[in-house]
Amino acid sequence: MVHLTVDIGGRPGLDCRGFCSYCYFKHVGDIEPFGCKNCLPFIKGCDYCSRGVREQYTGFKDLREVADDVLAQLQIVQGDLDRITISGGGDPSCYPRFEDLVGLLGSMEVPLHIGYTSGKGFDDPALGDFLIENGLTEVSYTIFSSDPRLRAKYMHDPTPEASLAVLERLCAGIDVYAAGVILPGVNDGEDIFRTCEWLESRGAKGLILMRFANQREQGLILGNAPIIAGQRVHSVEEFRDLVTELNDTFSMKISGTPLWDPSIGSPFAILDEPELLATLPRVQKRASVVTGSIAAPFVQRVLDACGNRSRVIPAHSEIACLITIDDLIALRLDDLEDTVILPGRAFVHDTEARETLSADGRTREVVRGPDTLTADAETSMGMERTGVLMMEMEGFGELIRTINKYGR
Prior knowledge:
It contains 14 helices and eleven strands. The protein has about 400 residues and is of the alpha/beta class. The protein folds into two domains: about 1-255, Alpha-Beta Barrel (TIM Barrel); about 270-405. The protein is globular and about 65 Å long.
């Protein structure tokens, strides 16, 4: 399968008609580079962990520049294109020449996909028909609420009725996966049920619910917590229960991040497949696996089923790929084995991690594990259970081989 990604550029909060009230990128300050697996051993900081993580880009690209990028990509593509995805740091619906862009890409007669849009830039309901006529087949569309008053207040949508009208037309004609950050006391309770009813009656394929983050340990690593002062956040258990109740109530697929996808049983669906667990490699050596606090008990159970004899260490951060050096500084070194395995995408410089985790005078080897072990809701929404299980088999197989190669 050959996919082409069209990057239109743009900046969060500036090229999307303003920050939504709950946006992860609000209040981002000047922060030092985190360090990551892409950094050179002797330099902490690269484009990805300094600028990319903040999506600190320039504004939207000119249409001519976008067209030139597409042409350059087409010259190196091997095989027939299966899909073209429009993405960027800004909101595609706010791209100044959005209709021209869609018309240009649509002329290639390849299915179009918009990776994300809030719809805040859609002021004319007729845009729904225009998009379908020009080959749009799938879109991820933030709804937040089917109540235009809530969209106006919390998303700062200047034309919420038009945005919802476009969404309604798209639901009737293509594959629409809606999304919404859930603010307790705002768009949960009766409102989320009304929103689900609205989406299902109009033909949406699914809804991804996103647990609101308001503290550093919930993922706000950019020096910008809290996003909304005093706003309550669902506990992980409360959020999972809400996702379960909604998925049981409606026929469209409803899942949540960080937990969970009820129809597939992910993340870590493999725990319900003892025969698959038995086919994973056996853990033969000892190593401490550091991961996010949400995933830690699940990872422990999988590894223990494969003969593991070491602890999986939960970081203070809930999400593994958002672990930083502050999480490693907070660990009890006495709890760690001589080999420590970090998440592949953790925002930690390898050299600094080794120094930090050897600060008690006991030299520890620090290595990277897989980038992913399972599928979150945004990934699993368009997947079947078999695909998720294959992803988990590959991820845990790689993790166990890493333990056996570097462990003691």
